[in-house]
Design goal:
Blueprint lengths: L6 H24 L7 E5 L27 H13 L4 E5 L9 H10 L3 E6 L9 H9 L3 E5 L5 H8 L4 H14 L4 E7 L7 H10 L4 E6 L25 H17 L3 E2 L1 H4 L3 H8 L19 H4 E4 L4 E3 L8 E2 L8 H17 L14 H11 L5 H27 L7
Parallel strand pairs: 1-2, 1-8, 2-3, 3-4, 4-5, 5-6, 6-7
Antiparallel strand pairs: 8-9, 9-10
The chain binds S-adenosylmethionine and iron/sulfur cluster (SF4) (2 copies).
């Protein structure tokens, strides 16, 4: 079947993501990384949902003059432009509650920096035409968090009764403008049994990308105390067989349908993570997946908290403030902020919170395999097979898209 794929289709695929993302990443891992790949900023700690797994739903304090301002964001973007860092992720809290967000996106875009926004979708359906035009002009990627298309489950996990309705309105509005939307889904004890049904419904609604992740059971915001008994929000160990069955169904479905997920990337490690979360296994969950671990994220991402602190990584407390010593420049401040954690990780002195690090683990797993292929040869074989299958399925789906009539209303 693959011999019929047109050269231009294949070439487009090869030249797109591969040249933009994969080759530079490979170079960074094998040869050297000259600069971080992206910046992620929590624009605000304010939020209009009360998710059961998020510290911001219970612990919001007024940041006063420590809160990030538009001027801070412009400084960050200027620094990124000088250092040729071309991607910024705008997160929160709820990023659309940051008043200048559209100005931030336009300012970044004018400097050749592309934004992604991760939102709960509560207010995005009210974006003005001007705002939408900015998102379109600067090729903004929007991630919308939906845990379930069952309103009862979604309202419960997101702590807000209008969560699903608003998120779907936002997806429709953005879809009408051809703004790419990815759905982010937290896998918890409340939705694990219906994930494949969720995928089929999402497909029917024209959603094309879903990223799943289990519950991070350390504090998402290390300046805030972790939610009590948070790890119990994860899928119980005696229900893992049901979860795995659901994920395998998703994996099969997406091979031949125009919807993509990250299931192929989380399958190799999810069980180990969840068993560790439930404390039925000891040690570092990631050492069960790779023999020699390498944390890519502390080299590739600059994490900036809502109070301007530079965090050594998303789960570590900020050690350096962008409001102080600004003249040193972002890269120098970030190097200081990450120095100790980088040293610890290289020496194998992992931190407690590393056991809760699932949001970055797929990338860290791949990086570990590329960096230490001999020590991690078993993982390399498993990953190689998964990646090859994925590659073939992407090519096949592109072929189908080009040569078949649409099967859905949307
Ligand atoms: C922290 S939120 C911030 C952006 C926005 N407020 C939202 O909810 O999309 C970013 C993403 O993290 C997810 N998230 C929050 N707490 C989590 C946890 N403990 N475990 C897994 N995912 C979590 C949210 O569902 C969302 O997809
Ligand atoms: S996950 Fe997002 S929407 Fe939910 S409480 Fe946290 S910041 Fe708000
Ligand atoms: S929690 Fe640990 S493994 Fe995860 S990004 Fe931070 S240092 Fe790396």
């Amino acid at each position: 079947m693959f011999i019929f794929i047109s050269k231009s289709c294949l070439a487009k695929f090869m030249t797109g993501k591969i040249i933009r993302n994969y080759l530079p990443e490979l170079y960074a891992l094998v040869i050297s990384r000259k600069k971080p790949a992206m910046v992620t900023v929590n624009l605000t700690n304010r939020c209009n949902q009360r998710c059961i797994y998020c510290e911001l739903s219970v612990n919001k304090s007024d940041l006063g003059d420590k809160a990030l301002s538009l001027a801070d964001l412009k400084w960050i973007i200027d620094e990124m432009a000088v250092n040729k860092i071309r991607r910024i992720s705008l997160c929160g809290g709820e990023p659309f509650l940051f008043e200048g967000i559209i100005e931030v996106i336009a300012y970044a875009g004018s400097k050749g920096i592309r934004c992604s926004v991760t939102t709960n979708g509560m207010t995005a359906h009210k974006l003005s035409d001007n705002a939408l035009n900015v998102l379109v002009r600067y090729k903004t990627q929007v991630n919308i968090s939906i845990d379930s298309l069952d309103e009862t489950i979604q309202s419960f996990t997101r702590g807000t009764s209008s969560a699903l309705k608003n998120a779907l309105l936002a997806i429709e509005l953005l879809g009408n403008k051809s703004i790419p939307v990815t759905v982010l889904t937290a896998i918890s004890r409340y939705n694990y049994h219906s994930l494949s049904g969720f995928l089929y419904q999402a497909y029917e609604k024209g959603i094309m990308n879903i990223l799943f992740q289990p519950i991070i059971y350390y504090s998402n915001y290390p300046d805030l105390p972790v939610i009590e008994r948070k790890s119990e929000l994860n899928v119980p160990v005696d229900k893992l067989d049901i979860l795995m069955r659901e994920l395998k169904q998703i994996h099969l479905f997406e091979r031949t349908h125009q919807i993509s997920t990250n299931v192929y990337r989380i399958l190799p490690w999810l069980e180990f993570y969840l068993k560790r979360a439930a404390q039925t296994e000891e040690g570092w969950f990631f050492t069960k997946v790779v023999n020699k671990f390498f944390c890519r994220e502390i080299y590739a991402i600059i994490d900036i908290a809502y109070d301007g602190g530079i965090q050594p990584c998303g789960l570590a407390l900020a050690t350096v403030d962008i409001h102080a010593n600004r003249s040193e420049g972002l890269i120098s401040l970030w190097s200081k902020a990450t120095e100790e954690l980088k040293r610890d990780m290289l020496l194998g002195r992992y931190h407690d919170f590393c056991n809760g690090c699932c949001h970055h683990f797929s990338r860290n797993m791949l990086a570990s395999v590329i960096k230490y292929p001999l020590q991690n040869r078993n993982a390399a074989i498993q990953l190689g097979a998964l990646l090859a299958m994925r590659f073939l399925s992407v090519i096949y789906k592109r072929f189908l898209k080009k040569h078949s009539k649409p099967v859905r209303g949307k």
